[in-house]
Amino acid sequence: MSLLTVGSVAFDALETPFGKTDKIIGGAATYITLAASYFTQQNNLVAVVGGDFPQDMIGLLEEHGVDTKGLEIVQDGKTFFWSGKYHEDMNTRDTLITELNVMEHFDPIIPNSYQGTEYLMLGNTVPATQKLVIERLAKRPKLIMLDTMNLWMNIALDDLKSVLKLVDLLTINDEEARLLSGEYSLRKAAKKIMAMGPKTLIIKKGEHGALLFQDDRIFFAPALPLEEVFDPTGAGDSFAGGFIGYLAATDDISFENMKRAIIYGSAMASFCVEKFGTERLVNLSKEEINARVQEFVKLASFEIQ
Amino acid sequence: MSLLTVGSVAFDALETPFGKTDKIIGGAATYITLAASYFTQQNNLVAVVGGDFPQDMIGLLEEHGVDTKGLEIVQDGKTFFWSGKYHEDMNTRDTLITELNVMEHFDPIIPNSYQGTEYLMLGNTVPATQKLVIERLAKRPKLIMLDTMNLWMNIALDDLKSVLKLVDLLTINDEEARLLSGEYSLRKAAKKIMAMGPKTLIIKKGEHGALLFQDDRIFFAPALPLEEVFDPTGAGDSFAGGFIGYLAATDDISFENMKRAIIYGSAMASFCVEKFGTERLVNLSKEEINARVQEFVKLASFEIQ
Fold first, then answer.
1. How far is CA A117 from each of CA A108, A113, A127, A249, B90, rounded to the nearest angstrom?
2. Measured between alpha carbons, how far is B231 from B50 in angstroms, rounded to an integer?
3. Cβ contact B193:B161 at 8 Å
4. CB distance A260–B229 less than 8 Å?
5. A297: which chain B residues are within 8 Å (Cβ-Cβ)?
6. CB-based contacts of B110: which residues, under 8 Å, 6+ apart?
7. What's the confidence (pLDDT) of residue B289?
8. In angstroms, what separates the C-alpha of A147 from chain B's closest C-alpha?
9. Nearest residue of chain A to residue B212 (CA atoms)
10. Model's pTM, two decimal places?
11. For residue A93, is pLDDT > 90?
12. How far apart are CA A278 and CA A276, in angstroms?
């Protein structure tokens, strides 16, 4: 089934305890579509970049089967740029530079050939823009998944609540779940958030795994304990891309299949952090992914009658 | 098989966001033996209390099948007393009062009838005392498990390292694993710690579950997301008690059985935190425990070919 991803395509400059990079390709939609590309063939992208965005980076997405018809290029504009620095624990980071540039007036135009998409992934961006995308789709997708962050809870809460009413699945981290719900207990937080609209909620906990909530059901997904996290940038988006790419490929949105999708998403995130930026994500084989998924199976399986 | 637990039996006074208690029964060995009592019949205790320790609290242990022959009562001494206050996140706590009292000169005397124990649980206490216990056993147990804490890493590291050489299994939390190894990555930390002696390591992560390491194998155990953590005191000891109690009852120290034991231990910890002190732990049925274990099975199970 076809997947449409809307979100940022950007330049990132990163610094971690292991080194630093100049401007490399980044952005939520980049990680999402790259991760999804290992699962689904119909991988459509709506995003905006400036005239400074190199053609070979667009080529990189296309090589991975990403349809870039919806990638608007504003010739006299500059691409969204984010620069950040991670500390030793890799859970906290300082934003050094944020230049919205062309993202500031991002008007998500949906190409006609993308209409009728069954799966919609709204990468983290302005909630009003996310809502606009849903309104511009002639037919409601089978599954709408939304990622967001604390920033929008602080400066655009009403818009966020408005779009939350329209989506099926929300993914946020544990801190954001606590912020959005005002509840410390994640179980209580999940109930309050699901009452805001999304029937399904994924709470990402980084090295501690992820929790999937739907009605009264909960699934606790493990994270692979890694020797080294080289660069956590894009881990959450790779997770989301692997997750929804797997759902789109299997076209099964049951709770049982979402559990599998979380494992595939976690596998993609575990690859992502092994190198800088998208470096590891663009060089994967299906065999590597399946072997990594088997590591998760071994990691989490036990037998009790 | 018989289990011997050595550790503190104490008074605790607790304050959490949900209320506070006067002096109630506490101490590592109390929680461990109570949790283990639901699994193993031969549940022996070596500890020390003062003349102020009420007979009915000893009776409480005995009602749960704990053999208190090894519980020394120093008539003119006072029982170890700890008082602490938890904050909203329940992961951090302030120690308000620590009165070692009779624990300061604790000389662990092993009753003859305890000799030949197959399973030994050394609750968190002075490392030199833990070592003394091992030396006083005529026959080496099949499994020696040790719990410790950051305090001993800071003030008695040599003694701790000396006893670590003698044990099979160490249980500590993630912060302590990082402190003891000097490694941030838990996978690297585990390797270094296992090289210090224990072939098996359990890293407890509270609400994030636990990791079991042995050779190159890793098991990621989930924690049950709870609506409310009422009082976290004793959770780690209840975990340890359920774990080693299950091992002793099944007399199987394979990695596969340790996985099951972790789930039983996690179930006991999840009960423990539902009420103040030992309140929930002393009023459990096997049916409740089995039902809770099934919740863990549902929580963590997924199927991937």
1. 15, 9, 20, 13, 45
2. 26
3. no
4. no
5. 304
6. B4, B46, B70, B133, B136, B137
7. 98
8. 22
9. A299
10. 0.94
11. no
12. 6
The CA distance from B191 to B200, in Å, is: 10
Interface test with B, best of A302, A304, A305 (most B CBs within 10 A): A302
* CA–CA min distance A183, chain B (Å): 10
Beta bridge partners of B31: none
Nearest chain B Cα distance for residue A167, angstroms: 24
Nearest to A187 among B184, B225, B304 (CB): B225
Pairing of strands B19-20, A119-122: unpaired
* Residue B207 is assigned to a structural domain of this protein: yes
* Number of compact structural domains in chain A: 1
From its phi and psi, is residue B223 left (phi > 0), alpha (psi between -120 and 50) or beta? beta
The rounded average pLDDT for each run of 10 residues, N- to C-terminus, in chain B (305 residues) is 97 91 94 98 97 95 97 97 86 87 95 97 97 98 97 96 98 96 95 98 95 97 91 95 98 98 98 94 96 97 91
pLDDT tens digits for range A50-81: 999 999 999 999 999 999 999 999 999 999 99
CA-CA-CA-CA dihedral for B75, B80, B83, B84, to nearest 10:
-160
What is the domain-level CATH number for residue A157? 3.40.1190.20
Residue A30 near residue A53 (C-beta atoms within 8 A):
no
* Interchain pair B293, A302: CB under 8 A: no
d(CA A262, CA A272): 15
Is residue B305 in some structural domain? no
| Gap between the Cα atoms of B197 and B161, Å rounded | 8
The boundaries of the domain holding residue A222 are 3-300
- The whole-angstrom separation of Cα B99 and Cα A211 is 41
Alpha-carbon gap, residue B59 to B36, rounded angstroms: 17
User: Rounded mean pLDDT of A99-106?
Assistant: 94
In angstroms, the CA B113 to CA B123 distance is 20
Residue B115 lies in a domain: yes
Ramachandran area for residue B239 (φ above 0: left; ψ -120 to 50: alpha; else beta): alpha
β-strands B3-6, B43-50: how paired?
A: parallel
User: Looking at the domain assignment, is residue A305 inside a domain?
Assistant: no
